[in-house]
Amino acid sequence: MKQLTFYFDPISPYAALGFEALPEALAGHSVEVTYRPILFAALLQALGQKGPAEIEAKRRWTFRQVAWLAHTQGVVLDPPAEHPFNPLPLLRLAWACAAPEGQPGDTPGRWVVEQLFHHVWRGAGADANDAARLAALRERLAPQQDPSSDAVKQRLRRETEAALALGVFGVPTVVFEGRLFWGQDALPMLRAALAGDPWFRSGAWEAASQPRPGVVRKH
């Protein structure tokens, strides 16, 4: 069975769309997916970048594009009342739904992740951090751990730091055999890798990221 890791933050509409499209991308393959919630804002801060929603023109384009992608995928995507919002309550709830680190089941399962994405992106435009909605979500998920505990908070921090160390710079990112596939639109590329496309054994993956002769780079 092939092993994949899906890094995500429920604040990202692209992560929501990638999550919805993942089963089709994996169809026909024996695959086990590990879901790892991470704090997207921490990636941006560490890399000195702004999120799409922090740049007004980019924010407008992002929501137009994700509306189109949802239309083409045939899925529901209702932006929450406020975006960006603080995703920490949802991220901590996700890790709280998993067993303590090092024990069997110490990452959240697909159903939990689905509930988080639906809470944000299928909430008919409701506030993702509305206290009553968060309480109802917590009751439905019945976490194994206290989402406000130091153990859960530290787990989220460690997972985000580990993702950064691995080279993750955005969400969603899928890791397969040491290769990082970033974005919902990278799923066809991931499917080709799963199918054993010889391109991935040809050295093209490595060569594509190397500086080209004659290209002047500013420092």
TrEMBL record:
The protein in question is named 2-hydroxychromene-2-carboxylate isomerase
For the protein in the UniProt heading, the enzyme class is isomerase
Q: Which UniProt key words apply to this protein? A: Isomerase
Q: Which residues form the DSBA-like thioredoxin domain?
A: 4-195
- GO biological process annotation, one example: glutathione metabolic process
Membership in a protein family: Belongs to the GST superfamily. NadH family.
The enzyme's E.C. designation: 5.99.1.4
Q: Where is the active site?
A: S12
Q: What is the lineage of its organism?
A: Bacteria, Pseudomonadati, Pseudomonadota, Betaproteobacteria, Burkholderiales
> Catalytic activity annotated for this protein?
2-hydroxychromene-2-carboxylate = (3E)-4-(2-hydroxyphenyl)-2-oxobut-3-enoate
Instruction: Provide a Gene Ontology MF annotation, just one.
Output: glutathione transferase activity
